[in-house]
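Hey, does this match?
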Amino acid sequence: MSLETTEIQDKLVETFGENVFHFNQEKDIFSFEVTADKITAIVLFLKNDPTLRFHFLTDICGVHYPDNAIERQFVVVYHMHNWYENKRIKIKAFINGETPDIKTISTIFPSANWMERETWDFYGINFIGHPQLKRILNMDEMISFPMRKEFPLEDGGRTDKDDRFFGRTQSNR
């Protein structure tokens, strides 16, 4: 039996009600939004339900929308895959820009550990309950989060960069 998106949606709405919404089919990925405080329960349900069987966490990433209302300035995006039926889903959980906190799912999927660390490293999204939330790619001394929109694209004070090597010289010839 093939797993249909309507079945996924029906099971989620039946179990979580208004905490799941904005269902949408985007090419071959079924996407929806969840309330951030229910993320662990929803991910656990998607993994353990005998029909849904989303046993593989493909990716976790963050997105910054500074022009959104403060309570929707950040979104954590989860991609999961059901290998039995070859179905993929995308889950979006919007979080507050002043306190970008969301619960970790590293207790459900150990592979989430590094993905959550990377998301914290670049966006400053705090994964509550994460066993070792520290920088993974940037320097430990860094005090900003470089994927946030307020982060400058270039550091004007760099001395190790010569614009001539990047095709940015003005030719007077």
